[in-house]
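On clarity, I found the account of how folds are encoded harder to follow than it need be. Since the whole study asks how a given chain folds, the encoding of that fold should be made plain. For illustration, here is how one protein appears when written out as sequence plus structure tokens:

:::
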Amino acid sequence: MESYVRVGLPTVEDKLLQTAVSRVLTPIYEGIFYHESYGFRPGKSQHQAVEALSREVSMNRMRYIIDADMQNYFGSINHGCLREFLDLKIKDGVIRKMIDKWLKAGILENGQVVYPTEGTPQGGSISPLLSNIYLHYVLDTWFKEQIQRLLKDDSFMIRYADDFLLGFTNKEDALRVMEVLPKRLSKYGLTLHPDKTRIIDLDDDGEGHPRTTFDFLGFTHYISKSRNGKRILKRKTSSKKLNAALKRLSDWIKFYRHKLPIAELIEALNQKLRGHYAYYGITFNIRKLHTYYNRTKCLLYKWLNHRGGKRVWTWAKITKLTMEWIPLIRPKVYHSYQLAKP
């Protein structure tokens, strides 16, 4: 059976215009966006969001986490609500007409051109900014200015694009917010995934609870003890992300094992290892980095022995190759926040 995908590709002219409009609007909204919003913003990164989360839980004793998962966020943004939010800051008629044009742009779906009434421009460079503007008013401002002042104890919010966490020291506060959060989002056309959104008690021993860990930005976060015996939040590469990365790596080695000389194959593998370490090379995650490194060697051993003919690569020979002759890059922590000066 023939299948179709939904495609919405802006023209080269539109891409240039969207980039130009984004550059004009970004300074305006950077002046009002909250510090707790980290996604698709200049000078902000996933690692900063992860470190902020660690500080809140480890130093501010946040125990209860609302781990929220929104369904099809980028495709659910209500155009009418977005226009109302843009009205608050953007009065220029030319810019507004261009944004309206991009919002209404046709999308090729199942061989037919459809004109969406919700969602941000597919593949457009202005889409991240528009999605940030939407959640700034729907979630960030609501939580920071309306909800937090009504809570009994301390709380926090950390958001990266549509991926966000809410944390609390008081269980009753967490339950109250959990009750009103879906109502707030549904008012603006957004839906929380019922099976993936929940309250987590990080200090629970796990008995009678579905989990005491949570995933955020590719890491699994969990409570452990520091060397001084203090309660701190640690993180490791999530199993889902690690398995997906290894599957892609296996497919890549399988495809290129016949096409590249050994030296070029390992040079290309080293580029992939650098990229993996650059993101996942974070404090407390060295064991998972070594897992990725060791599994890379195993995949190399497997696929080099499937090049045709008899097996010529023993494990001892692979070890010599990857450690002495043409070494694979060893794991390295690039983001050592605990050692950084304040």
